[in-house]
Design a protein that fits this description.
Layout: E1 3-8, H1 19-28, E2 31-36, H2 41-53, E3 58-62, H3 74-83, E4 89-98, H4 106-123, E5 127-132, H5 135-145, E6 152-154, H6 161-169, E7 173-176, H7 187-192, E8 201-203, H8 229-240, H9 244-259
Parallel strand pairs: 1-2, 2-3, 3-4, 4-5, 5-6, 6-7, 7-8
Length: 261
C-alpha cells in the first residue's frame, strides 16, 4: 500500500537525533513521498535542503505559519518568493490564520496570509493552508485570491460541516490527520468526512504532532511519525465506509496530481 504524507514537520527539533531513522521507518511503512512543511523562513530553508538531499520521494513547502506572522517582513517575503521557485518546493505555506492562540496579532496574521497567497498566485504553486478559530476571516481573504490560485489545501482540517462545505465550494482540497483517530475530539470530523470527494482528499500526519490515539499497540513515545500514516488511512476508510486500498490509491493519486509529483 503506497501512501503520501502531505504534511510532516521533519525539521522539528523532536527529530534532531534520529531523523534518518524516522525517514527509513516511513519508507518501510509504505510512505512513498513526504512533503516537509515550512513554518518559518528558517524551517522553510531547512525543509528545502532536506528535500534536496533526498533525490526521490521528498519535497517541501515554503512559508510562514500564522504563529510567526509578526516576523514576516519584506526580506522574508522576497526569500520565500525566491525559495518557492526551486523545483523541490511544491507549495507555498504553511500559511493562514490562527486566532486560537494569537501568538501574532490578528492584523499581522492577515497581512502575512495575504502576502503568501500573492506569492502562490505569482509562482503558480498550490497553497498549503492552516486555519484555527478564524474561519470567516480566513475565507474572506481566500475568496479574494481564489480565482487566480492554481490550487489550495486546507491542511489538518478539524472544522465543522459548514466550514467543510464552504471549502469544497471553493474547489479546495482537504488534508486529514490523526485528529480523525481521536475518540474524544474527532467525533464531528468522523461524521462528515464522507462528504469529501476522493479527488479532493489527502492524508497527513503533521508529525511530530497529532499522534493517532487508536494505535495498537500505542508507541511508548508520544511523538508522531510519518510511519504512522497507515493508521490515519485505516481510520478514515472506516469512517467513509470505503475499502482501505481504494482510499490509499485515491489519496495517493490526488496528492501526486495536486503537488505535481
Amino acid at each position: 500500500m503506497e501512501l503520501i504524507d502531505i504534511g510532516v514537520n521533519l525539521t522539528s527539533g523532536q527529530f534532531r537525533k534520529d531523523q534518518a531513522e524516522v525517514i527509513e521507518r516511513a519508507t518501510q511503512a509504505g510512505i512513498s513521498h513526504m512533503i516537509v512543511t515550512g513554518t518559518t523562513l528558517e524551517h522553510s530553508l531547512k525543509a528545502a535542503k532536506l528535500s534536496i538531499s533526498h533525490q526521490n520521494g521528498m519535497y517541501s513547502t515554503a512559508g510562514v505559519h500564522p504563529h510567526h506572522a509578526k516576523d514576516f517582513d519584506q526580506s522574508t517575503h522576497q526569500q520565500i518568493l525566491e525559495l518557492s521557485q526551486h523545483e523541490k518546493v511544491v507549495a507555498v505555506g504553511e500559511c493562514g490564520l490562527d486566532y486560537n492562540r494569537n501568538f501574532s496579532p490578528e492584523a499581522e496574521q492577515l497581512s502575512c496570509y495575504d502576502a503568501q497567497l500573492e506569492i502562490a498566485v505569482e509562482t503558480k504553486l498550490p497553497v498549503f493552508m492552516h486555519q484555527r478559530d478564524a474561519h470567516q476571516a480566513f475565507i474572506d481573504v481566500l475568496k479574494k485570491h481564489r480565482p487566480n490560485l492554481t490550487n489550495g489545501v486546507v491542511h489538518c482540517f478539524t472544522g465543522s460541516g459548514v466550514e467543510l462545505d464552504e471549502y469544497l465550494a471553493l474547489d479546495l482540497h482537504i488534508g486529514i490527520t490523526g485528529w480523525i483517530c481521536d475518540e474524544r475530539r474527532g467525533k464531528e470530523l468522523q461524521a462528515i468526512v464522507d462528504r469529501i470527494p476522493l479527488n479532493r482528499l489527502m492524508i497527513e500526519t503533521d508529525a511530530p504532532y497529532l499522534m493517532p490515539r487508536n494505535m495498537e499497540p500505542m508507541p511508548k513515545s508520544k511523538r508522531n511519525e510519518p510511519a504512522y500514516l497507515p493508521q490515519v488511512c485505516k481510520t478514515l476508510a472506516r469512517c467513509m465506509q470505503v475499502d482501505i486500498e481504494e482510499l490509499a490509491q485515491a489519496t495517493t493519486k490526488t496528492a501526486k496530481t495536486f503537488f505535481k509529483l
